[in-house]
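Re: [ENG-882] Designed sequences occasionally contain unexpected residues at chain ends

Forwarding the minimal case from QA. Structure tokens:
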């Protein structure tokens, strides 16, 4: 089989397209992996890389890329986050989903894809049986595009993880609720920034009485208050599959925290991680959550930063950490003492710290900073193709390719 870099060069020449130097270089990295006999490779062409000069892909660039990936048996993941592929690229992404039967991971987040592009991708998944994980985060597909995803999920039986966060969807939970009643393969659903209110969380909870597959529910950055927690606390008394719940940046306050604490303490034994970061919870509610950990052996990860700590809160969580009930890597606070008073400081742990970006050094998928992915494992991120090498000048590469052609090395 010819190299991806060679195929890319030939197709660009054939279609009179300018070679994208960033894509060119990363394809060389993948070719080296393939030569070593590796399979199941994810091609990472993230447009927000800080480690090398980036030339973001357009829809036409993605067209060329999709053509060379269509029949490649070694690539089963594609990450093109933070590029500019737009609805044009979404059309070719949909075609790729119909033709490439090895692809299990596709990350299209923040690519200027609109409602029409969302419709194309959703419809392509009606018959696709291989894709497991799709990220549409940050593409403004709006309610029009979201409706097609809700309809698709009532048909598709292979997609396990879907992120529709920050897609300008508003109160789409009626349709997503219908989907959750029918779909029994989805394990992770991200619905952050959906303008979801209490009536929306009620729709989801009504569906969760029947759903037995969803393990990770992300409803952060919405408008859910303490009244919404009545519905969630009630469904958690009978739901035995939800393991990770992200309620960050809502407004559940003390009453909402108490509703959850009572259920977690007495009824639920499936939830492993709960984030209530920045929810206007005061000491009374935070202490109640800490008390639930003493009787609930399953709840291992709790994230509370951004609420209103009093001394009782600080002492309660300090005690949990010191007695070993709450491991330091499983929370976003650590305790220290000043003038005889126990205080809490923030640490950089969380459910999805590196969900939107990759660090310039260290592990991008560490268990402490990405607990959600660790507890409900996502696609094998260790296979991401990521390079820290300095980018070679494109002209030099083209000269080398030309010399190889002259000497019959291709």
């Amino acid at each position: 089989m010819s190299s991806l870099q060679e195929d890319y060069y030939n197709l660009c020449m054939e279609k009179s397209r300018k070679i994208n130097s960033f894509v060119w270089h990363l394809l060389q990295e993948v070719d080296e992996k393939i030569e070593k006999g590796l399979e199941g490779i994810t091609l990472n062409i993230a447009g927000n890389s800080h480690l090398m000069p980036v030339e973001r892909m357009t829809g036409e660039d993605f067209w060329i890329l999709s053509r060379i990936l269509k029949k490649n048996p070694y690539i089963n993941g594609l990450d093109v986050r933070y590029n500019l592929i737009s609805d044009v690229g979404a059309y070719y992404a949909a075609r790729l989903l119909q033709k490439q039967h090895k692809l299990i991971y596709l990350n299209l987040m923040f690519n200027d894809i609109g409602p029409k592009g969302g419709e194309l991708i959703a419809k392509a998944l009606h018959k696709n049986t291989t894709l497991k994980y799709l990220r549409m985060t940050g593409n403004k597909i709006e309610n029009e595009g979201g409706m097609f995803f809700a309809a698709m999920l009532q048909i598709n039986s292979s997609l396990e993880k879907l992120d529709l966060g920050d897609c300008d969807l508003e109160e789409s939970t009626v349709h997503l609720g219908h989907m959750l009643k029918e779909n029994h393969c989805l394990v992770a659903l991200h619905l952050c920034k959906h303008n979801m209110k209490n009536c929306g969380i009620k729709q989801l909870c009504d569906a969760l009485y029947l759903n037995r597959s969803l393990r990770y529910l992300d409803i952060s950055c919405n408008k859910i208050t303490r009244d919404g927690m009545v519905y969630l606390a009630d469904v958690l008394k009978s739901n035995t599959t939800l393991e990770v719940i992200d309620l960050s940046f809502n407004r559940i306050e003390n009453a909402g925290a108490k509703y959850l604490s009572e259920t977690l303490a007495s009824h639920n034994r499936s939830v492993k991680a709960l984030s209530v970061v920045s929810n206007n919870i005061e000491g009374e509610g935070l202490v109640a959550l800490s008390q639930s950990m003493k009787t609930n052996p399953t709840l291992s990860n709790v994230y509370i930063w951004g609420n209103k700590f009093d001394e009782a809160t600080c002492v309660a969580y300090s005690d949990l950490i010191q007695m070993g009930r709450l491991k330091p890597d499983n929370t976003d606070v650590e305790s220290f003492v000043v003038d005889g008073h126990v205080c809490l400081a923030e640490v950089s742990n969380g459910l999805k710290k590196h969900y939107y970006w990759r660090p310039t050094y260290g592990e991008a998928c560490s268990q402490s900073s990405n607990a959600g992915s660790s507890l409900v494992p996502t696609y094998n991120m260790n296979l991401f193709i990521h390079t820290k090498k300095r980018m070679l000048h494109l002209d030099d590469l083209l000269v080398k390719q030309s010399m190889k052609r002259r000497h019959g090395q291709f």
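QA comment: On inspection the terminal residues look reasonable. DSSP finds 14 helices and twelve strands in the chain. Proposing we downgrade this to a documentation issue.
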